Amino acid sequence: MDTKKNEYYVLNESAMVFFRYLVKVGSLESAKKLVAEYYGYEGEDLHADLDELLHELVHLGFLQQK
């Protein structure tokens, strides 16, 4: 929730799976691997989509890069 703009953000199922793995393991590459295993798919577009999601979560302030 962005209280300044009074906006709510909702993650779809695949984004939530990624977010949970990322928080659990704390490593981008490990989270990507777990998501790929979860969905049984290893395509490059999956990794690109997860990179884009990560960028958006950081941009919105939901995550911070170390």
UniProtKB/TrEMBL annotation:
Pfam families: PqqD (PF05402)
Classification lineage: Bacteria, Bacillati, Bacillota, Bacilli, Bacillales
Organism of provenance: Paenactinomyces guangxiensis
UniProt protein name: PqqD family protein
Database matches in InterPro entries: PQQD
